[in-house]
Amino acid sequence: MDFLKSKGWILIRTLGKLCKVIYPMGRIYFISTVCFFAVLAVLPIVQLYMTKLLVDQIALIIQEGSDQLRHGFELLSLQLLLFIATPALTEISGLLRLRWLQTINFSFEREVTEKAMRVPLLAYETPAFYDQLQRATAGLGSKSVSVLEQLLTIFRNSLTLVGYAIVLFSWHWLLFVCMLAFVIPTLLAHWRMGRSKFAQTIYQTPSYRSMHYLQHTMRSREASKELRIFGHGRYLLAVWKQIYWKTAKEQFNLEQKFTKIKLAAETVSHTGSILLIGSFMWVGSRGVMTIGTYVSLYQAVASSQSLLQQMAGSIGNLYEDTLLVHDVFLLLDAGEEADEQAVRDTDRYSFSHCLQTEQLSFCYPSRSADTLKDISFSIQKGEKVAIVGENGAGKSTFVKCLLGLYPATSGRILIDGEPLAGDRAVQWRKQTSAVFQDFVHYHLTVKENIGISRADQLKDEEKIAAAAAAAGASEMIERLPDQYDALLGTPFVGGLELSGGLWQKIALSRAFFRDSDFIVLDEPTAALDPMAEAELLGKFMDIVEQKTAIIVTHRLGCCMHVDRIVVLKDGQIVEEGGHAALLEKNGEYARMFHAQAQWYNDKSNVTVSAT
Ligand SMILES: Nc1ncnc2c1ncn2[C@@H]1O[C@H](COP(=O)(O)OP(=O)(O)OP(=O)(O)O)[C@@H](O)[C@H]1O
């Protein structure tokens, strides 16, 4: 908000930057659009001159008779040409402009999307980032285009105005100066309105996000079941309605306030123009002016007044839109993780020894207390470790730190003794693979769902089939009508919906498809049936044989297969060791294990006693 204070400077800088960014996006369109605008700017002046010639010629024909007719028809032919040329040029320039604007829109949409994929993951933990992203999504392309259109309109109107100014100057210099003075109140009104509207957009962004969220929830497939069972649609609708009318009222009030100011300003401007035209009538009454001159002066005053009003509006809109574009440029200039493209495959770093953390602490930006506290941990290349602990212990957060997705708030994460940051973090991620708890259901084909973890190998059908087999998904895929080409997800025509467990198998296949040294599986069997879980865990060690693997799980049965178990509690490691050793220790792990085992035993007891 600081930049609201230094408004003029921001405006100039942002416009300069916008032109610099936009020019390379379509040089030909840029130059041709400017040329067309220049020609279209001159045409009204030519028309004004033509009107004067025609009116004077008609007066001559009335006075002198048919001798003057021939020249009159010549002038009419020119007038016809002008009538045809003006709309033709307008249409052609409109088409050119459309193509140019499409190019700009595409480039900016792509930039914002790429930016969203490149910012550090931690940005997604701050509401300010979502606000900025929402504004950018709501239209960097269209706002930039609007800025350009305003600029071009101002440029075209200025050129036309120069023509009118010459006509007015030719009579008296004071005429044009008066015209300029009359429009100053309107200009100030639009300028202030532009600034206020921008401030309102910034202020209302969180409300807009809330509205979008509520609308999405009420219309989404995910929430549709609960909405019908719990019937809370009316409640959500009422919340949405309250926010909608609050923001709408604020906008209406602002518009109402400025409508009054604009009307007052325009009244001043129109009164001034009428006074000027009245003065022409007075001069005309003294016989100093031809009828043609009177008509052209009248037209020059009326048209330049309308142009100046339009320009005042355009300047106000330009101001508002430029501030919004500046806000989006702030997002585009925000810090990024090291550039994935720049960290080339040839720079690929090979994990050879050990991943470790030294007194690692991590705090989410929205929280005051550390989620991970002072964790010192290491995993050797090839080792398989299970991380267990109660809900909220910090398991998922910890593995995200190990994957280089979150940076340490204090302490260090080291890969083969080197800190995990910058290029090294990007290089490290190229060697990692993961299945997160909230893995994505891509509404793409089965093949794409599996192969996008190595998009460059998407055509390797054998490898895709092998990854599916490793995750126990082959049989299910082969039963689908189009097998690996089947489209998943019902939102699109022909899409198939899978069960939760089958989606999880697809997510596992995706993780296995990626050639990675390090793999993290966060609750990989949560949605699997007992048979599928047993099958996956049975061959898990074979699948990850060559890899370093971490499995986060609440199903403690699978801990028997790993080399080491780490128990997290309140963001700290409280126990570490093998299954047997931890049971013998009779601590946190043993307590959790027995709680689960007892449940199975109790059930089996019930079954036994019942039979
Ligand atoms: N994005 C976030 N922003 C703020 N706090 C978060 C965020 N994600 C998780 N937390 C908090 O961090 C703590 C640890 O969460 P985490 O998901 O790492 O636990 P977990 O051990 O994986 O839990 P579970 O077994 O339920 O999956 C919790 O108190 C949680 O509320």
From TrEMBL:
Domain ABC transporter: start-end pairs: 355-595
Transmembrane portions of the chain: 28-50, 71-90, 161-188
Record-linked PROSITE patterns: ABC_TM1F, ABC_TRANSPORTER_2
InterPro entries xref list: AAA+_ATPase, ABC1_TM_dom, ABC1_TM_sf, ABC_transporter-like_ATP-bd, P-loop_NTPase, Type_1_exporter
Compartments where located: Cell membrane
Gene Ontology CC terms: plasma membrane
Main location: membrane
Keywords: ATP-binding, Membrane, Nucleotide-binding, Transmembrane, Transmembrane helix
Domain of life where this protein originates: Bacteria
Origin species: Xylanibacillus composti
ABC transmembrane type-1 domain span: 34-320
Residue ranges the record marks as coiled coil: none
Protein name (database record): ABC transporter permease
GO MF terms held by the record: ABC-type transporter activity; ATP binding; ATP hydrolysis activity; ATPase-coupled lipid transmembrane transporter activity
Membrane topology: Multi-pass membrane protein
